[in-house]
Amino acid sequence: MVEGQSMVLYRAERDRNLQKIDDTIGEMRNWAYFENEEDSAEENYFEQLTNNNLNFVHQPKVTPIVNEPKIGRNAPCPCGSGKKYKKCCGK
């Protein structure tokens, strides 16, 4: 059954869960996405940790270790002899 717009608005006015939001900022203040007191306390704690331990923030960047791919037994030998790896350097 299709209801008209006036009937939908009438039911929305009577429903406790559907209310018009007059103060958007006040309504969203407690939402998880927006900052609240607990978040600011965590940020302050993190700032104290980083200020006390500057090595934590300014650690030298380490280049990752990259392993060379393994040479297959039947692949050509990388030494350039033209032989298969298993007959040349793979012994």
Automatic annotation (TrEMBL):
It comes from Trichococcus flocculiformis. This is Sec-c motif. It comes from the Bacteria.
